[in-house]
Amino acid sequence: MNTIASLSLITLFGGIIIQLIFGKILKTKVKGWVAFTFGLASFLSIVSMAPAIINGQTVKVSLLPWQAESPFSLYFDGLSLLFGLMATGIGSAILFYCIDYMSHEHNTTRFYSLMLTFIMGLIGLVSAQNLLMVYLCWEIIGLCSYFLVGFWYTENVAVKGARKVLIMTHIPGYALLIAILLLYKGSGTFVWTDPALAAQFNTGIFILVLIAAMAKSVMFPLNTWIPEAMNAPTPVSALLHSACYVKAGVYLVARMFSITAWHPSWNVILIAVGCVTMVMGALYALIQTDLKRLLAYSTISQLGYIMTAFGLGTPFGLLAGAFYVFSHGLFKGTLFLCAGAVQHATGTRDMRNLGALAKKMPGTTIIWLIAAASIIGVPLTNGFVAKWLLYDAALKSGAWVVIIIAWLVSSFTAFYIMKATVSVFFGEMPVELKKQKIEDASPLMLAGMGVLAAASLLFGIAPQLLVKWIAAPALSAMNVSLPTDVTFLGLQVNGGGAPITAGAILTVSVLIVVALIFLLRKPKLEGVSSFTGGDPLPESNSLNTVDFSEFAGAEFAPVIRVLDPDPVYLGIWHGIYRFSTWVKKIADEMQKNWAIVTIGAIAVLAALVSIL
Amino acid sequence: MILLDFTGFNWQLAFTAVTVLILIAAEVYAIKIPQGKHFWGLALVSASLIVSALWVSNSVVRTITLDLAGLSLVALVWSQDKQAGKLFLAAVLLGSVLVASGMALGNLFGESSEPTGWLLKAVFALIMIGYLIKLAAIPFSFWLVPVAEKSSIMSAVLVISLLDMAEFGELASLRVEAPWLFTNLHLSTQWVWIGMALLSMFVGAFLAMAQTNIRKMLAFSTIDDIGYLILGLAAGTAGGVLGVLIAAISHSLCKFLLFGSVGVAENGLKHPLTLTDRGMAGKYPTAGAAFILGAIGMIGVPPFLGFLGRWRLYYSGLEAGGVALAIAMAAATALALLYYVRVIHKVWLGKADEGIEAKQFAASPFWINLILVVFIVLLIVAGLFPWLFTGIFGR
């Protein structure tokens, strides 16, 4: 088992070395296949550890000596399994998609090396037994994100995004380092499984760790880097900025449950952060006209849900969080890949210039619809089960504010996803687009996206698979046992879940009835008079992306303004820069009179020492 | 107790290896991009004197040898720019005289024993001020910026990478052999050192941020970094001193990368590199990568070697001054990130200006690219697999 655990990292390292050594001679597609193969091998090595972990065992490996105070020791438990499977499983599907998607790009050696390094870094992060190694991997994935966002480094827009990613995620990372060093100072160990370290955990440490987690997991107000990161190649957005990188902070939060018992105030802090983030992300998503930026804000909102679930802190809350984090990786990864396929085919991701792609890209459309249904929370998808578990957890905790906010944000989610779906795949095709030859994504790309969408459906129809094999071990790693059994469609089979199950059956029945009525009436799409609520419709007699975004932007303008922290950051930067230019002026004057300044400084220092 | 026993790290061997590596790299660099007519000989003499100083056990001879190395570098800089040479000479002479006087007064050339009263204050003041001048800490940085700006790029590297590293080795030895200079029951020496370290860290960082000339920016970033190293020594734990030694090595290697890549760009542009030059990585990708990774290594981001030193410096800061000092160090590092990122994104990354795009650039010499890549690999390998070197250098 130890060898297998080591293989999860060693295979990826091997893949990176092959990319670097043979990058010059291998063809782009071959490099893609190599990356995929090594990613898959790593995935299989993690899968092969799963039976032992599901049975309650942990896999420990001392990989390298590294430093005297902190060897590279791996510790795979249920949480490592959850995040490791996400990194390698979703990662492999995305690498498969890349084979065709990146086939026309240059510098793919750099691209694939960084993608594999990122996956390796994430596995290292979630399996590290000592906290210094956690920080090492934390920063490695941060650097990968920076370099991948700036992949097209001669394009201003890409490097601008990369700069923001680096600054906004690296600086809060020092909070994590200080927290780790404080724990080390108090306990004399970096090993988080050591009870001596747990004894040192307090609210100050929690807040320091949370700051770092918030930055990586795009929690308000440290969220504004992710929309700028959307200028990265789409597989990067799918792997890093939806499925895995942004989950690193979630991992840290979840891991704190493994280390220590939570103080109730920590739950309140996390719920507050999660709820504000949830609302903020959804509101911003409503006003976007760029497909990837919409998905980026949607990621912010969805991560708000996940953090809120963990913030509830109950076994139900943790179950919802564990289920949601994996599910989000699947459906959001799919949505990003579909967005990439659309951009690949049309050359744009501006929803104002898109439309009616369902006819030209049927495969992509079907996959998008599955993922869109999932993020909205339509039954038969994993998104439905995730939301259901969250609502259930909130109901059981009596957290009514969470329920109301989550319900409101779910409505917003449905709005903005419907907006994107209709704008891109339905309606009328813009004239410019009609002139282009548009083809559906290649079979390899469809397979990459399709696997993730199929998994969304699988875990929606049979969520017990995900609960039993992935969420339950994760809960066990967080020192909590599975609070309920879940069966097909997310139905809970124990007594407490019966009323909710009845509600779900009612909901599904209503949906079936509505669908039947719709099908029987066969309404005509043209010539339908619309009730507009008093305001006249635009000339086109329909609301398009721009109308919708402008409407949402105008209605929510005050809230949107308040929830934008960028002006504050800019103010800080300008303040620092002004101060530095003022210091420079003084220093320049001092340089002109260096001899006098030197003698004066010596005199001042000598005087200071004499009076000590 | 000597530094090797205190830290378990064979710093003399490690510093020698780095000195030889940088000397070879600088000489190869000078073959491809000329660094002045006296460079070859004076670089060799300086590096040889530095290596000798590392191994001489007699403290008088050691101090004199290191001062001679400084003077040979003064000669090198003087041959390229008289004004910079004069300032450098003033610093070397003043710093050496003050340090030597303090050491003589405190009997540090012989059997060291802690002086008391006014003698303690005099010895402490002389040695501290002497080293602050030698290391160009604020407010004695008057000489470093002209040296970095006016001398050839590899001459600046020899001064900033090799001489500074050796001086830090000396100061670290003193930290172990005469600990009363840093932590003293009768005199708050530790807080004076910490205060001077913070001054260098913050003022250096702010000054680096305000520069438009990249060489000047790198000079102030050196001053910023020197603040960290002084702080590690002030804390004085074995971990802190080990952190200083590792950070000094990392500083030398990263500074080679930073200056080396700037030299490549300047050789192509035929003028000093400034913030108005855009998109240089498009013209010189290897140099661009070297600058970016050198900058990241400088601020101690893992997986670079600098992290192994930097976390220990943070830890020693935490031990000496609690969370407040650790947060101050993190804030200074954040400033360093900001000024490096500013240069990376204004000068190296992004679209080149039309003027640069249209201009025909000299190709980056293969051997220089190779050296830069070797340094990058070395920094990463040493950061990730330090145990590979423990057989040679100890801990």
How do you describe this structure in short?
The complex is a heterodimer of chains A (about 600) and B (about 400). By secondary structure, chain A is an all-alpha fold.
Description:
Chain A is built from 26 helices and 2 strands. Chain A is mostly helical and 612 residues long. In chain A, α2 (28-54) runs parallel beside α4 (108-127), α10 (234-243) packs antiparallel against α14 (315-346) and α20 packs across α21. Chain A is globular and about 95 Å long. The relative contact order of chain A is 0.08. In chain B, 78% of the residues lie in helices and 0% in strands. Chain B is mainly alpha-helical. Chain B is built from 17 helices and no strands. Chains A and B meet through β1, α5, α6, α25 and α26 of A and α5, α6, α9 and α14 of B.
Class computed from helices, strands and strand pairing of chain A: mainly alpha
H/E series of chain B, N to C? HHHHHHHHHHHHHHHHH
Largest sheet of chain B: none
Distance between the termini of chain A: 62 Å
How much of the sequence lies in strands of chain A comes to: under 5%
Described by the principal axes of the CA atoms, the overall outline of chain A is globular
- Briefly note the structural class of the backbone of chain B: mainly alpha
Q: Count the E strands of chain B.
A: 0
Which range best describes the helical content of chain A: under 10%, 10-25%, 25-40%, 40-55%, 55-70% or over 70%?
Answer: over 70%
Number of helices of chain B: 17
CA-CA gap between termini of chain B: 17 Å
Are there runs of chain B of 5+ residues with pLDDT below 50, and where?
A: none
| Number of helices in the DSSP assignment of chain A | 26
Mean pLDDT of chain B: 92
**Overall number of domains of chain B:** 1
Oligomer: heterodimer
Strand content of chain B: under 5%
Task: Supply Rg of chain B.
Answer: 20 Å
The major β-sheet of chain A equals: 2 strands, antiparallel
Shape of chain B: globular
